[in-house]
Amino acid sequence: MNDVFELRRTDVGGRIGELRVPRSGVTVETPALMPVINPNLQTVAPKRLETEFGAEICITNGYIISKNDDLREAALDVGLHELLDFSGAVMTDSGSFQLAEYGEIDTTSAEILDFQYRIGADIGTPVDLPTPPDADRERAEADLATTQSRLESVEAVDTGEMLVNAPVQGSTYPDLREAAGRDAAATGLDLFPVGAVVPLLNSYRYDDMVDVVAAAKRGLGAGSPVHLFGAGHPMMFALAVALGCDLFDSAAYALYARDDRYLTVRGTERLADLEYLPCECPVCVEHTAEAIEGMEDDERETRLAEHNLHVSFGELRRIKQAIRRGNLLELVETRARGHPAMLDGYRALLDHADQLETSDPASKDAFFYLSSESARRPEVRRHHDRLSRLSVAGRVLLTEGDENDAFDDSWRVVPPFGPFPRALSETYPLTAEVPDRLDDAAYEQAARGVRELAEANPDVEFVLAHHGWPARALDRVPDRVAVERLGSTDEYDGEDETEP
């Protein structure tokens, strides 16, 4: 477990944690949003970010401050917190974004870390080498080696109580991301930003983003606090948190406002296209779309930025409550229905169900089956994996109907889980809420459960009694399991007549 990060509650890969920031004595509850503060242009005053929006941590660009004579002298004179008028934790970036954009910056990791320390940053960042998506492997490996060398050089810099980021690069190569995660964790540094994902997010490649983060998480391990660099749109927070991301930095609240764009948890709207404001935040309650559109540029930008912040912080509170309730995946699925690319991301998330299952609690309040994707949730996988642990012998009826005394035992069958002893009927997740009209995926997963049970017990005679399962599901039932369709009475007559 990381010395500065402690987990409090988990759900899937998501977690509520505490990040202790010793230099300022602040403890940040995660998942947390870090508003990006541009010291040259503040759309919303940093003090208001604390008092009105609840920001406990922010991020600013240490490289930009170092290259501006006035800002540099002021930061060295009074310190970063007073310069920004922000009493929470302050993270500083190193100029890696400028390096990715312009190909060159005038500083080294040692120099910029020393500067970040001298101006009072709570969390500093070395200069890593971001590799864009789809770069050729040779370049990705070379850039990764450079980044790792720079991380190792941090040992020579006196950073005192300042926490230090260890960025994880590797482009879109999962094996490189996983290796980079292991190497970053081995440095003994404190926080772990997954970098160079902004191009993926900007092009709506949420499925690739999921694969990149999942790979980095495998390398980093469960106890590492993870920052998803450049991820600031509320529509993808739930997905990223379910993967195990803890920190997000948002310049989007201000950048989008400058372009008259209005953030929602389903996507982005242009102010000119809105007749009504579909939000309950103070900005939207107190103003109409027409009124905001008619404001002077600076005032309109501020009002939109305020709305964007309310939506972003509100979504993180909603996510935390979902983690506490154990229904984070239901929230992720709801968000996934807002955009086809988000649905791709959710499906990619479920491709990593085995990985997510390791941190997913064994018991929660409820399981809601909402779509075919629900059939691939970690809880279903866990149930199938545990069927081999259950004791079964003799002649066993697996039924969607009633018990039958003609058998040695009679187990229930509930899609998508499949078979289980009746004594487990009131245990999670077998108390799942499922619709009456299930899709084929639910029955296919239930058939997989039957197969897992049959393969684990080759000497047991099984009969499956069902309510008209689709052929694709029945094809997955082993040949040695007798199959019978139930009648209207839900009773099985005991005759083993396998369906054609």
* Number of structural units classed as domains: 2
Q: Overall mean pLDDT score?
A: 93
User: Based on the structure given, which CATH architecture of the largest domain is correct?
Assistant: Alpha-Beta Barrel
What helical percentage do the residues reach?
Answer: 40-55%
Portion in strands: 15-25%
- State the strand order across the main sheet: 16-15-14-17-18
Question: In CATH, what is the class of the largest domain?
Answer: Alpha Beta
* Rg, Cα atoms, Å: 26 Å
The helix-and-strand class reads alpha/beta
E-strand count: 18
Poorly predicted tracts of residues:
none
CATH superfamily of the largest domain: Queuine tRNA-ribosyltransferase-like
What is the 3D form?
A: elongated
- For the termini, the CA-CA separation is 55 Å
Number of helical segments with 4 or more residues: 21
The CATH topology of the largest domain, please?
TIM Barrel
Largest sheet: 5 strands, mixed
Tell me what you see in this structure.
- It is a single chain.
- It contains 21 helices and 18 strands.
- By secondary structure, the protein is α/β, with parallel strands linked by helices.
- It folds into two domains: 5-355, Alpha-Beta Barrel (TIM Barrel), CATH 3.20.20.105; 366-485, no CATH class.
- The strands form six sheets. It has a five-stranded mixed beta sheet with strand order 16-15-14-17-18.
- Helix 11 links the parallel strand 10 and strand 11 (247-250).
- One of its GO terms (molecular function) is zinc ion binding.
- Belongs to the archaeosine tRNA-ribosyltransferase family.
- It is an enzyme of class 2 (transferase).
